[in-house]
Amino acid sequence: MQLYHNSRSGECRAPLGAVMCGRPVRLRLFGASNVGRAILLWTVNGERTFLPMIPAEDDCFEIRLKMPETPAICEYCFYVENRDGAGAYYGNAWDGLGGVGVESGPEPKHFQITVYSPDYTTPDYLRKGVMYQVFPDRFCRAGFPHSRRKDMLIHQNWQDTPLRRVDAVHVKDNYSLDFFGGTLRGITMKLPYLKSLGVTVLYLNPIFQSRSNHRYDTGDYEKIDPMLGTQADFERLCREAEHLGIHVMLDGVFSHTGADSKYFDFYGHYQSGGAYRCPKSPWRDWFEFRHWPDDYKCWWGIETLPQLNKANPEVQEYFLGEGGIVQRWIQAGACGWRLDVADELPMSYLRRLRKAARAVRKDAVVLGEVWEDASHKVAYGEMRSYCLGDTLDSVMNYPLRGVLIDFLLYRCSAEAVCRLVQSQQENYPVPFYYSLMNLLGSHDRPRILSLLCGLAWGEDDHENKSQALVAPDMLALGKRRLLTMLRAIISLPGIPCIYYGDECGVQGTADPYSRGTFPWGREDMVLQEAVREMLMLRKKPVLQTGDLTIYADGPDAFVIRRTISGGHDVFGEPARDDTYEVRIQRP
Hints:
Blueprint: E1 13-14, E2 19-20, E3 24-30, E4 35-44, E5 47-52, E6 54-56, E7 60-66, E8 72-82, E9 87-91, E10 102-104, E11 111-116, H1 124-127, E12 131-134, E13 153-154, E14 166-167, E15 173-174, E16 178-179, H2 184-189, H3 191-196, E17 201-204, E18 208-210, E19 218-224, H4 231-243, E20 247-252, E21 289-291, E22 295-296, H5 313-320, H6 325-331, E23 336-339, H7 347-360, E24 365-368, E25 377-379, E26 382-384, E27 394-395, H8 398-408, H9 414-427, H10 430-433, E28 437-439, H11 448-452, H12 472-491, E29 495-499, H13 525-536, H14 541-545, E30 547-552, E31 557-564, E32 578-585
Parallel strand pairs: 2-11, 12-17, 12-29, 13-16, 17-20, 20-23, 23-24, 24-27, 28-29
Antiparallel strand pairs: 1-3, 3-7, 4-5, 4-8, 6-7, 8-9, 8-11, 9-10, 14-15, 18-19, 21-22, 25-26, 30-31, 31-32
Helix pairs in contact: 6-7, 8-9, 12-13
């Protein structure tokens, strides 16, 4: 039938992209010269209706809809019959990423319209800034640390390689009990360095008392880990950072605790009656025991990470209530939280968490770890949308990171990059999209430079690869790729994020080797200066809140164009007209 609908064309869909609640939307289907009737299959939060479309000018059928009054994910496709009664569907492209649709016999994938709250706002410092992620034990130490714990190893030499010691009892988890002694005071000492990079948001991996060096096994949410310092050290860090225009964001691990915690007390290190030790423990119902004490739910089967029962009112009150953990540390100076495994927290929990954070700080940020498209993530059999204005401010943009790596390593074309970016631009509300955490690397992935040098490892492929050797020509190529990737990230909406040390050439395979120490005095100064110069570009208003156009220029390059026109940016705020354009060519 030669039908045509493009979800990114104003002729076919107006307005484009996500829309606010209650707004009208016009949809058009072209190529209707031989069409007898056209029906819109319209679905709102899983509830489907069939709506007749009206013949219109320009050889098309159209329909005008009022969007729901409450936030929702709306989906649609078309069913048409020609004048002979033969029918066909027309819907989203085969990859589900929007744009020009396809005709299909069976019902196709649906196009999406995200309908979000009209009062949805995100902090200015998030969408206009630069983020820097620090793994606290490995960034900078102020004085040599001391500890009475017998189960830990403290490296004398800051330049040592992190140890990997398998815990055969607990599903082969890494012990993560070697420490380098980085401290909050050490981070405070290096704030001028971060300021010189243009950093406006400092994201800290967990800092609360824990058994491991990564501290995702929280022992006490109310205490700073003694190896890192004290609450006074944290408050000083936040004050001095604020003086330099830097906001401090904490890592919230609220889906599980550590087995070695006052709440669970697997090892008997506490005298407070943890749930594992005492059936009458005040924390007994915080965890889900199938058979007390040895059979309990834990995060991804890792026995050292017992899972919290988020439905328990006491758990919710402890974390989300007035004066609870979420509010307590914002009151102490944090700007908000990056939520570990946010998609494992109930939606009602996230809604209350965001309200709790905003209650004590109007510009508090709640940013989630979600690895897929956050507008229609399916988790535990339920479709969850995190971008409607009631849960998260934004998410870590792993999809963008993944497609850029694939592009630079010749695993996909420039068109694939553009389709991913355009899909996010279409599905995400403007406040959410312009607050995406666009990361180069993270503590969960091998070092970005190592990946871009063409090195690859399986999950268990660690032996003899903690210090993988890279030929000089490949290392030079990897650095060119890193700068190319950074230029793309800087040029796109969202906040670019640097994982500590990536800016000065740190290499490493998967955990724990991606968590080496910052090489103070041994930095790649040429790379570091090139990164600094790029990060300074983020001060351009057009790169902060300008409109975006992206298109492929052949298989090996794409063009990013940012514009401010008419005296207003994408948020409707007054801004000087400007244009920025860059061609991203893979080396």
